[in-house]
User: Fold this.
Amino acid sequence: MFPFSCDTFVALPPSTEGQRIIFGKNSDRPCDEVQEVVYFPARDYEAGEKVECTYIEVDQVAHTYAVVLSRPAWLWGAEMGANEHQVCIGNEAVWGRESADGDEALLGMDLVRLGLERADTAEKAVDVITELLEKYGQGGSCMEDDSGFTYHNSFLMSDRKEAWLLETSGKYWAAERVEGGYRNISNQYGITTKIDKEHPGMRAYAQSKGWWDGKSQFNFATVYSYQTTARIEASGSRYCEGKKLLEKSNGHITAETMMDILRDKDSGINMEGMFMSTGSMVSVIPTNPALPAVHYFTATPDPERSVFKPFIFVKHINPLKETTSPTYGANDPVKKKPRFLSKPDRKHQLFVKHELVAAIIDSYKDRGQKITGCMRELEKKTMTKMEEFLSHGVEEPDYLANLFSSSVQEEMATYNKS
Assistant:
């Protein structure tokens, strides 16, 4: 299958305004797939407990951090998300010389969630994910059917001070630290000769396969890709277009900049068609640890006609009911073997409302423009409020316990008025 998938971005000082790190990602998935936004509080576990991921179970740790996730509603993991320590992670599908057609194991999306639940820094997330990769491997269908759509994964992760890029090929991997400027990833390997961490057997394995002569400078992307990195830089690729869009605002990148990039259809970053942008995330993380981070999620397809809604980690957050999909427990066709014999209805409340509004926007130009204008106005008003918290902190955290849900309700009320 042609490698359709996502784009993930991070911008750090000095490329951003206001000593902030800006993280963004579009989750590009099958057009009929529902993406939900869910919250899980921090928890403690007994020794010997297991956690059931999408296809396999793994050993649980003594403590997991609170996380907010944007994920395809049929699986356990996540395409993207953040944790209470303001670590953000997004993953990308990558294909290379190593086959991705292995047994069911951990999906890259499972590794995103596990990394967020277990790591309080971006570098620690690299260690968590690579240790799990070594122990359990990666594999299994990445779509809610038996099409055999499989891939390896790259991950972009950030915290309050830096970002890390982690790229995998089977159990082998390389990681690069990003300490300033900006970085974006799409669906090809991008780590070249700057490798700050790596699998201890990565180079020897490549040499044993005849991919590297053992003498020339080691370039991860060149060695493990189908082709050299020239294809990544090819004119017209989403990677190249995303890089140009970041460069255009270099030194002044903000949350609004990142949202505009994720909404850009000419570049292909906002994807349409059989694969489309089914959910989007933008996070604003001040480098000052005394200030809160704001994580914006759409929970709906096509960011151009969606509202980015804010989430801030505080105590006593309630479940995000309006963006949580129905669950089917042991009767879920994903859990039964053979898997994927049917597809249940996974539409959450916001998705149902948004689906109707999207149809109106498509069918009635004037009415559609009015609705889109109301959505942008609501988003702008909300972001102005969030700027106060980002600049001055939160005096009454309990006030924000229902921030995301309240924003979703405002969005649905806007649809009703329109």
Q: What stands out?
A: Residues 206 and 212 are 6 Å apart (CA to CA). The chain is about 30% helix and 25% strand.
